[in-house]
Amino acid sequence: MAELHIKQIGKSFGGVEVLRDISLHVKDGCFTSLLGPSGCGKSTLMRIVAGLESPSTGRVIIGGRDVTVLAPERRNISLMFQSYALLPHLSVSENIRFPLRMRRTGSRAEQDDLIAKALTLVQLEGLQDRMPRALSGGQQQRVALARAIVAQPEVLLLDEPLSNLDARLRTEMQVELIELHRRLRLTTVFVTHDQDEALTLSDRVAVMTNGRIEQEAPPSDLYDRPRTRFVADFLGAANVLELAREPGTLAIVEGQIRLPDPPRARFIALRQEDLELTRNPEHFDHSLPVQIVARVFLGGRTRYKLDVEGLTLFAIVPRGAYADAESGTHVAWNRGAIHPLSE
Amino acid sequence: MAAVDWVRAQARKESLALLAPGILVLVIAFLFPVGTILITSVLERTEDGAFELTASHFGKFFVDDYYLKVAWRTLRLALVITLATVIFGVPLAYIMRRAHPALRFAILLTVILPLMTSVVIRTFGWLVVLGNGGLLASLVAPFGVTGRSAVLMHTETGIVIAMTQVLLPFMVLTVLGVLQGIGRDLEEAGRTMGAGFWQVLRVVVLPLAVPGIVSGSLIVFALSISSFITPSLVGGVRLPVMAGSIYQSIGGSFDWPFAAAQSTLLLAATLLLIIPYARLARTP
Fold first, then answer.
1. pLDDT grade, residue B149 (50/70/90)?
2. How many CA atoms lie within 13 A of A90 on its CB side?
3. Could A87 and B189 be called an inter-chain contact, meaning their C-beta atoms sit closer than 8 Å?
4. Considering CB atoms only, which of B188, B194, B204 is closest to A99?
5. What does the buried/exposed string (b/e) look like for A217-256 if buried means 16 or more CB atoms within 10 Å of the residue's CB?
6. Any idea what DSSP says for residue B235?
7. Residue B282, min C-alpha distance to chain A (Å)
8. Last residue of a domain, one of A229, A263, A280
């Protein structure tokens, strides 16, 4: 276990800059997600931490030791691949033994002990003699996880480990990952393009796009106070609106809707939960006449697609408020719901 | 039930139809001639014109020191050539697998090019390099290596060099095929788990490449043990191999039964070596 410092990392592939001046501090025992769309550089950043790529500029420091120029095998990390990368010619227990064997950790009996513990942690007792090809996808995933944690790495790197599982198994594994992290307290970097997964699992989330970190914060901060247009958009929880620059009014460009008292920003976010459908717009700071275009039932909540003079908004309404919402003539919100965004 | 049976019967008929051309070629071009050889090798024409069973053709082979030497040379050469293609071919295949596609294509072309040249031209090329006063001789002359030791023509070493060049693509392409099935992530996983570059090659890549190395060696071994032109031209009359000796029995002394006996022995020896070896490829 150790702290991970990523300092001003830059990376270019043949003249194309894929990472620009990335700095990130992952505290000891912290679970940090790198979240972003494919091609944002999150996997490259993780490969640089693992030592599989070398950065063009910047440094990687693990537990106070500068490992920037060290080969992967000289760093005390482990990486769980999206493909699991189980060695097909080795049994489950030999796969889990592999990092111990390569690092010459303990006697064979001590290794057996560690393997048994790791198997118990991922609930695979009894499968140690199977070959990887005789396992289901979910089981292979657990073997890969056991292999990643068995050697007690200073930093655990997880590269989209859940993306090959079906939805039910994925939710199950998310819970197990949380429990496992609570128990082992490994410094963990989790790479994903799934915002729900990142928000569910992490202590902190770094949202990446175009080779930069847009915002790095605890999940709730990110959700409540997205700082940039990209973050608000990518998390998908907010309506992102572009404003016209007319002093004294909040004019939403597409609909040319004028509202008093605008924020000083070109883009604003209005969270879907903060919008209300109502017949009494006078109780709110801002309101607009609205038409319901479509509704999506989400269990405890319903998501409404709204049309405001040609502008599309989404609102999420909890179960108790359906009746009001259905008869609503206006979409309304209070001033506090508006989050100014930088571009 | 009846419908299921009908579908099964139909599927069997379709499979048979697809197999038929292959089986036909195999019977006409392989089973029939090989069968004829087997029969010829154990028959002898008596004075009254009838045929009777005999082991005399095989006896002739085993009592003559000359033929045993030929057999041993053929086997030894085939083994050394196979080993040489493994030593040169496996690393080359690994490099090709890692290389940029353009470089991979360039290597592929270089490796395959000898196959596209006529065997005679290629062998005469080696004559220019390995022969008396050839390139090799003039290269090593400044170091005081002259005379017979500088000439690899008419030596077993010369045969091995020339044969390795020709058979290398069979090894490289077979192993490359298998290596391409080993994901890069396995090697990278090995590195992140504490294994160095060479250790990853030894404990990850090599074990997984074994089936390819085995099938490559089988092809190379089978081709080199039965090769005729290159050993004859590079080795010359002093270093005959089995295929050359068989040719000699037919073309020189018209002794068809003895040629058939030698062919049978060659086939038997090849199968005896290949079958247990091929089993290796089955358990990766």
1. low
2. 21
3. yes
4. B194
5. bebeebbeebbbbbbbbbbebbbbbebeeeeeebbbeebe
6. I
7. 12
8. A229
**Residue to test with chain A: of B179, B184, B192, most A Cβ within 10 A:** B192
pLDDT tens-digit profile of B223-266? 999 888 888 888 877 888 888 888 888 888 888 889 999 999 99
Q: Give B88's DSSP letter.
A: H
Considering only alpha carbons, which residue of chain B is nearest residue A94? B203
B60-282 folds as MetI-like fold (1.10.3720)
Contacts of A52 in chain B (CB under 8 A): 188, 191-192
Q: What token pair was written down for B128?
A: 């220019």
- Look at residue B35 and give its three-state secondary structure: helix
CB-neighbour burial class of residue A149 (10 A; exposed 0-12, middle 13-18, buried 19+): buried
Domain that holds residue A206: 4-229
Closest to B119 measured CA to CA, from B234, B264, B236, B273: B234
Q: Which two tokens stand for residue A187?
A: 């410094």
A50, A73, A88: residue with CB nearest B194: A73
Per CB distance under 8 Å, which residues of B are interface residues toward A? 183, 185-186, 188-197, 199, 204, 207-208, 284
Do residue A81 and residue B189 have CB atoms under 8 angstroms apart? yes
pLDDT in tens, B89-101: 999 999 999 999 9
A215 and A305 belong to one structural domain: no
> Does residue A202 sit in the same domain as residue A322?
no
Q: What is the CATH number of the domain that holds A334?
A: 2.40.50.100
pLDDT of residue B123: 80
Report the gap between the CA of A106 and the closest CA in chain B (Å).
14
Q: Which of A177, A209, A229 is the last residue of a domain?
A: A229
The residue extents of the domains of chain B are 60-282
Q: Residues A199, A313: one domain? A: no
Subunit contact A81:B193, Cβ cutoff 8 A: no
Residues A224 and A285 in one domain: no
Contact by Cβ (8 Å): B257, B274: no
Percent of chain A surpassing pLDDT 90:
56
Q: Are residues B195 and A79, on separate chains, in Cβ contact within 8 Å?
A: no
DSSP characters over A189-229 = EEEES-HHHHHHH-SEEEEEETTEEEEEE-HHHHHH---BH
Question: Does pLDDT of B203 surpass 80?
Answer: yes
Residue A81 distance to chain B (closest CA, Å): 7
Min distance A27 CA to chain B CA atoms (Å)? 21
- Over residues A324-333, the pLDDT tens digits come to 777 878 888 8
Give the pLDDT band of residue A247 (cuts 50, 70, 90).
Answer: low
3-state class of B198 per DSSP?
Answer: helix
State both tokens at B261: 């006996």
**Average pLDDT across chain A, whole number:** 88
CA dihedral A144, A146, A150, A154 (to 10 degrees): 70
The number of distinct structural domains making up chain A is 2
The answer to whether A85 contacts B208, with C-beta atoms less than 8 Å apart, is no
| Of residues B139, B164, B144, the one with CA closest to residue B216 | B164
Q: What is the CATH number of the domain that holds A123?
A: 3.40.50.300
* Tokens, residue B119: 């065997």
Minimum CA–CA partner of A103 in chain B: B194
Please check whether residues A260 and A157 belong to one and the same domain. no
Tokens of A51: 């030592």
Rounded to whole angstroms, the Cα distance separating A331 from A313 reads 9
